[in-house]
Write a structure and sequence with these properties.
Helices cover 13% and strands 41% of the residues. The chain is built from 5 helices and 25 strands. It has helices at 2-29, 299-304, 308-311, 334-338, 343-352; strands at residues 34-38, 45-46, 52-60, 66-73, 76-82, 88-95, 105-114, 119-128, 135-138, 146-148, 153-161, 165-172, 175-176, 190-197, 207-216, 221-231, 238-247, 257-258, 265-266, 280-285, 290-294, 326-330, 369-373, 379-387, 395-403. The longest helix is centred in the N-terminal third of the chain and has 28 residues, at 2-29. The model is unreliable at 1-30 (pLDDT under 50).
């Protein structure tokens, strides 16, 4: 009897373990997050005489669909936009601060809800002061806008204030670099603020967005933004193309065709003459409400998107060359993408993937990754970073690494 109970207990624990493992896997599979893009820059600081204008695009990462997005302040809803199951939605709202809010950081909360009832929140912070601050922040003419990954950006910033300075801080991608925070000053109204930054490996091939924030003793505040691009110091056997914008079929701006050898993007006009250089084709699907990246040889693209009726001599069927590109959609994090350091890494991701190579990525969401093999036998990898509004006039922004 004792042995029987033990066997039952062991069996129960085994089932529980499997259930827990499955539950954990399911939770990872349905993780919900959003990408918030500010189409109009949100001010860091305002006065009661100003208005705060929100012009936001909220896009769900992965395959999740949105039902609504709400903007609130201190628990009070300001506006709600119904997404009706779309992958992304635009939200606009105007807010005017009051004199009672002077000296406060207003924390506006953006709450996105998906079709499963799950929510994710993002905070947007704006500081209210009584009047524009009389504070100047001046970078030296010698401040670098570009460094190599084995170099240090090191310079002094001239700060002057009408009132005593309370603190000087530096932020990178909205996150404070606490080691650079300064709150004691020999001259309380003037300081030579020392900025120093050593890039890390994931900074390579990126443009870093910094700002210096200065507050005086009256609570007045200014932020001075600047950027530094980090270049790779080592010679590598692959090319990096950062923040490439690919348009959909009706885009009046960036074109839909990508040259993997040079990183060039071509518009539809004149595409036939450049067809031998085109490795990837972008289009927006109205049936699936998604952006797709495909081989020029995908038959449905020539039959339904870049047709003779719409594009005449530059239609895909009229291209003298249609390069075959093989594509695999894989799962890879932004951090792992950044850490790719050789063409062998890219090739291994392609060859080791069990995904069957095809001619299309199918629908691409923010954070999705494809690996590909061009007709010239070069391996590449593409990370979709952001998308504009869902439309055949829209575009996607991608980072690409391609074997030389």
């Amino acid at each position: 009897m004792k042995n029987k109970i033990s066997k039952i207990l062991i069996g129960f624990l085994a089932i529980a373990a499997v259930a827990c493992k499955k539950d954990k896997t399911d939770q990872q599979a349905i993780a919900f997050s959003v990408k918030v893009t500010q189409k109009t820059a949100l001010p860091a600081v305002v006065t009661p005489a100003d208005e705060i204008t929100f012009d936001l695009n909220v896009a769900a990462n992965g395959e999740t669909k949105l039902t609504s997005v709400e903007l609130s302040l201190d628990g009070t809803g300001l506006t709600t936009v119904s997404a009706n199951g779309a992958a992304q939605v635009d939200l606009q709202h105007t807010y005017k601060p009051t004199t009672i809010q002077v000296g406060r950081s207003l924390i506006f909360r953006l709450t996105a809800t998906n079709s499963e009832g799950k929510t994710v929140e993002r905070d947007l912070v704006v500081y209210v002061q009584s009047a524009p601050a009389n504070i100047s922040v001046v970078l030296p003419a010698t401040a670098p806008t570009e460094i190599k990954d084995n170099e240090v950006a090191d310079f002094n910033i001239a700060v002057k204030s009408e009132n005593d300075i309370r603190y000087i801080k530096t932020f990178l991608n909205q996150t404070e670099i606490t080691a650079l925070t300064k709150n004691t000053f020999t001259n309380p109204k003037e300081d030579s603020y020392h900025f120093a930054y050593q890039p890390v490996v994931t900074d390579i091939d990126k443009t870093l967005e910094f700002y210096v924030e200065v507050m005086d003793v009256l609570g007045n505040l200014v932020r001075h933004p600047f950027t530094i691009t980090v270049k790779r110091s080592a010679v590598v056997d692959f090319n990096v193309y950062s923040n490439v914008v690919l348009g959909a079929q009706r885009s009046t701006g960036p074109g839909p065709f990508f040259n993997a050898a040079t990183g060039e993007v071509y518009v539809t006009t004149g595409a036939a003459q450049k067809s031998a250089n085109i490795d990837l084709v972008t289009f927006y699907s109205g049936s699936t409400n998604s952006y797709n990246i495909t081989s020029p040889t995908l038959a449905t693209v020539s039959a339904n998107i870049y047709t003779v009726a719409l594009y005449g001599a530059d239609a895909l069927d009229n291209w003298p060359t249609k390069n075959r590109t093989l594509i695999k959609k894989i799962t890879l994090s932004q951090n792992d993408f950044d850490l790719i350091s050789s063409a062998a890494d890219i090739q291994n991701l392609y060859t080791s993937s069990s995904v069957v190579a095809g001619k299309t990525s199918a629908g691409m969401a923010n954070g999705n990754v494809i690996v590909f093999l061009t007709a010239s036998n070069k391996h590449g990898i593409l990370l979709l970073k952001t998308r504009s509004a869902n439309a055949n006039t829209g575009n996607v922004t991608v980072d690409v690494k391609v074997q030389k």
